[in-house]
Inverse folding.
């Protein structure tokens, strides 16, 4: 019996989503032992939020560009742009999780009112959208990667791709707002 990824996109999406989110929540909740991760110098750890802000900004550009390309019918360029977006997202996530495991999460240094009424709601929506995006992005990605281009149009790729791109964009933008509040304004 031949096992083909294209016939199991939903199952693969579920497996990848569970593994990815387990890693994220494991890091955020301190379940990954700090000693299991090699320690980078403080200069590298301190640079990660700034590097991630740049990565997020570039990802916003690549997602918007990818959406514009597919609307113009430039499907192959769209595919390259969205794969670039996914690579940027993966890089961002690896760097972020590394920093969280080694140093923990950043404390908000600003006033309590800003913390309660701006920072926390922004962070909560960013996190919620990021979590919701994971399975949708995997699903869209797997639909595209497991089929010839001519067959992708016969799938739910476009429908879910619009949802994924929208949620992904808002999540990246809100992530940059969190960055600005943590590292620029305060």
């Amino acid at each position: 019996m031949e096992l083909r990824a294209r016939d199991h996109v939903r199952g693969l999406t579920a497996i990848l989503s569970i593994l990815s989110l387990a890693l994220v929540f494991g890091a955020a909740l301190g379940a990954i032992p700090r000693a299991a991760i090699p320690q980078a110098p403080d200069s590298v750890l301190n640079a990660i939020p700034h590097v991630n802000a740049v990565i997020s900004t570039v990802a916003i550009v690549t997602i918007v560009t990818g959406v514009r390309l597919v609307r113009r019918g430039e499907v192959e360029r769209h595919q390259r742009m969205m794969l670039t977006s996914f690579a940027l997202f993966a890089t961002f996530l690896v760097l972020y999780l590394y920093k969280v495991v080694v140093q923990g999460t950043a404390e908000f240094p600003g006033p309590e009112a800003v913390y309660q009424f701006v920072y926390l709601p922004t962070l909560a929506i960013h996190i919620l959208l990021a979590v919701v995006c994971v399975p949708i992005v995997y699903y869209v990605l797997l639909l595209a990667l497991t089929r010839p281009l001519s067959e992708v149009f016969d799938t739910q790729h476009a429908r879910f791709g619009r949802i994924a791109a929208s949620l992904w964009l808002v999540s990246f933008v809100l992530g940059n707002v969190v960055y600005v509040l943590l590292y620029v304004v305060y």
Observations:
- Residues 39-185 form one domain.
- The mean pLDDT is 94.
